[in-house]
């Protein structure tokens, strides 16, 4: 069984099935020793249910709460099975409802919360912090007693997370990064990739990276109009796994939507795609 104790009473678990090429496997977290809180649940796989079963087997332990950072299938996959087997209180942000509905998972949510909310855990109070951007109702979970931040897909351990339509919003994403920058954090535990031991540096690099991409988009458009596809080709060729070009294109579209909201670019329909121009 793949599991790792981060600090006493905090387990980091991962899904077992291999992710699609170019993607990273999801991690999720189990807090406490009696009344357990689960943050996310990975892919829909029997392994996850079995793992949690093994943790619960020993004593009078129970799975009290499951909080979803967001509703994508690599985080919310097995909630039907977890609900049936362990009956935890399953919580998600109200703003994430459409995402979960599209995946036919909304009916397993017991409690929808708005904005920030606090929940009890044996490691201390857990602050659920609204951090939209990767998806509309994305949240992080902050454990002030240990200065640990569970970042879901807002911050991943390596590389960058995907921010683009239909669920993503780059402007909101950048604001969420600025928001968590203000928290006193010594360790970030992401939904993908390794733990982050130097949160301030990692966050600084991430913000810089996004600003660089935005600058590149503006630079390319200053030489003439382009479609998201053309821009992605210019920016990402040689940088990413070929399977990820479609994702890169959507990420570029995320930047373009932000720039359009800020009236720095404008677009016209060009066949199936949109052509973007720099605003004079
Ligand atoms: Zn994910």
CATH architecture of the largest domain: 4-Layer Sandwich
What's the CATH H-level homologous superfamily of the largest domain? Ribonuclease Z/Hydroxyacylglutathione hydrolase-like
Kindly estimate the percentage of residues that lie in beta strands according to DSSP.
15-25%
Number of domains: 2
Taking the sheet with the most strands, its summary is: 7 strands, mixed
User: Kindly, what is the distance between the CA atoms of the first and last residues, rounded to a whole number of angstroms?
Assistant: 58 Å
Q: Fraction of residues in helices? A: 25-40%
Structural class: alpha/beta
Q: Do you know the CATH topology of the largest domain?
A: Metallo-beta-lactamase, Chain A
How many individual helices? Answer: 8
Mean pLDDT: 92
Spatial shape? elongated
Which distinct ligands sit in these coordinates?
Answer: zinc ion
How would you summarize the topology of this molecule?
Layout: E1 3-7, E2 10-14, E3 27-31, E4 35-39, H1 46-57, E5 62-67, H2 73-76, H3 79-86, E6 89-93, H4 97-102, E7 111-113, E8 117-119, E9 126-130, E10 139-143, E11 148-152, H5 170-181, E12 187-190, H6 199-222, H7 228-236, H8 245-261, E13 265-270, E14 273-278
Parallel strand pairs: 4-5, 5-6, 6-7, 11-12
Antiparallel strand pairs: 1-2, 2-3, 3-4, 8-9, 9-10, 10-11, 13-14
Helix pairs in contact: 5-6, 7-8
Zinc ion is lined by residues 26, 72, 74-75, 153, 191-192.
């Amino acid at each position: 069984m793949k599991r790792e104790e981060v600090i006493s009473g905090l387990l980091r678990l991962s899904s077992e099935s291999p992710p699609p090429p170019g993607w990273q496997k999801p991690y999720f977290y189990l807090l406490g020793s009696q009344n357990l809180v689960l943050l996310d649940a990975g892919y829909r796989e029997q392994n996850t249910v079995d793992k949690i079963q093994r943790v619960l087997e020993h004593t009078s332990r129970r799975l009290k709460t499951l909080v979803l950072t967001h509703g994508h299938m690599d985080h919310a996959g097995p909630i039907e099975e977890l609900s049936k087997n362990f009956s935890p209180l399953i919580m998600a942000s109200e703003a994430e409802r459409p995402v979960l509905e599209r995946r036919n998972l909304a009916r397993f949510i017991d409690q929808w919360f708005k904005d920030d909310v606090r929940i009890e855990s044996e490691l201390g109070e857990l602050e659920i912090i609204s951090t939209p951007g990767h998806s509309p109702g994305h949240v992080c979970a902050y454990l002030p007693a240990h200065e640990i931040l569970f970042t879901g897909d807002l911050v991943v351990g390596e590389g960058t997370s995907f921010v683009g339509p239909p669920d993503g919003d780059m402007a909101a994403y950048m604001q969420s990064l600025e928001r968590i920058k203000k928290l006193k954090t010594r360790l970030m535990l992401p939904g993908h990739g390794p733990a982050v031991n130097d949160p301030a540096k990692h966050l600084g690099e991430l913000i810089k990276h996004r600003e660089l991409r935005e600058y590149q988009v503006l630079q390319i458009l200053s030489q003439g109009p382009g479609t998201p596809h053309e821009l992605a080709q210019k920016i990402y060729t040689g940088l990413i796994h070929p399977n990820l070009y479609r994702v890169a294109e959507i990420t570029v579209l995320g930047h373009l939507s932000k720039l359009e909201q800020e009236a720095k670019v404008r677009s016209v329909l060009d066949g199936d795609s949109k052509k973007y121009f720099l605003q004079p």
